[in-house]
Amino acid sequence: MWRDAVAVATKDLRIELRSRIATHQVLPFALVVLVLFGVALDPDRGVLTRAASGLYWLAVLLAVVLAAQRAAGIEASDGLADALRLSGLDPAGVFLGKAMAMAVELVMLEVLLGLGAVVLYGVDLAGVGTLAATAALATVGLAAAATVYGALVGGTRGRDTLLPLLFLPAAAPVLIAATRATDEALTGAVVGAGVGVGDWLSLLGVFALLYLAFGVLSYGPLLEDA
Amino acid sequence: MTLPDAPVPAVDVAGAPAAATAASRTGTVASLGLGIAAWGLLAITVGLGLGLPQTVEQGVYSRLIAVHPPVAWVAYVAVLVTAVASVVWLVPRTRSVTADLVAGASAEIGAVFCALMLATGSIWGRPTWGVWWVWDARLTTSALLLAVVLGYLAVRRIPDPHEVRARRSAWLALAAAVLVPVNHFAVEWWRTLHQGRSLAQLTPGDDLDGRFIGAMLLGFVAMTLVYLWLLWHRVRVERLALELEESDLETALIARRAEATSGAAG
Predict the structure, then answer these.
(1) Which residue of A149, A176, A183 to mutate against B (max B Cβ within 10 Å)?
(2) What is the pTM of this model?
(3) What is the mean pLDDT of residues A14-29?
(4) Would you state the pLDDT for residue B11?
(5) Which residues of B touch A194 (CB under 8 A)?
């Protein structure tokens, strides 16, 4: 299963590397979103700095939608879904591979967006360990969820509009948990009574585990329909 | 595969509509009784609700207690039924067309009642809290729930063979159901500071309690019956649509074959 996963992940990343859609379209889009937030909110009153963690994760979420559409598009084109089924690869491996490739893309995206937030929103980096843990868990969860929903809407006609509708509400817990954890890491302030960074991180972890398990179980049956 | 010279079944184009009419009599005495009971009780609930006294804190709006909690109850029940029916479909041993149809029908009703719940909640919230919307854990969860149900219904609208649609939507419902606890904790924790269960502030005078609770309980029964009645008929209509879809193809095939044989004879 893991060998299959690595093979699929390598394939997806190689396609991204060659087509440059991730670097030339998804990344710039995310940066545009960051800039637009800055324009929409009043930068003079510190709103931007206070809302930075929320805006950051929202930008990530929007970019994930694009990346997931792209990933589902790869599968839908050129009869690739059929080829994957014929290849005899373990469906669970295919799922993990696609999620891995997506996670790698997301990490790059998050690092660059983080730089953008530091520069544009005047965020002072603090609690780097917590930030890294938050980003890692959120990334796995988002990548797994996006891959699951990408497979669900598969090669269907309304894919591009359906995916955000399905994925964004489902990702709401990640947005909440990652934003709070980032907030606490940056400011040291505890938001909820009795709810700390550890709780948010474990929530992110549970989300990631649930979607990984779900994807491993469902990818085979869903691939049949694509 | 039918050979060209195989005997053509003696069914003309009228065969399909005839089958459909027979099936359309699936509305039974039981469903009629259910309908009468549902709407009758609902009418009584409305009557009782309008007769409720005004409370000091909320005035006429306290009467919403006969409507809003029952609507919310049905919304959650409907979504739960969708999840359960989807699991029933996913288990190979219990897989049936009915399970899929129930899941879809229940989700549709769930969406309507979820929207009604948010609407009546807002109408109630405006005089009580002074705003249409508060970022309270329960409201946020409900709004997300509505979004998820709408997404589910959109997926069901994808034109696909029945089996494909059933599998896709069953897995989607399962994904949403698995997420419920995560969603719950995320939203609850997010709003922990905020909470003093706002709805619990509805404290009518002690002597009034009984009438309010009575109207609300009757509302629960009435709304549940309305839900069952809607579900029954929605599943019935969906089943008829499926039958029509299949018989359409059947009729067309038969017509073509008849053409071919008559052409060969002539």
Answers:
(1) A176
(2) 0.82
(3) 81
(4) 41
(5) 192
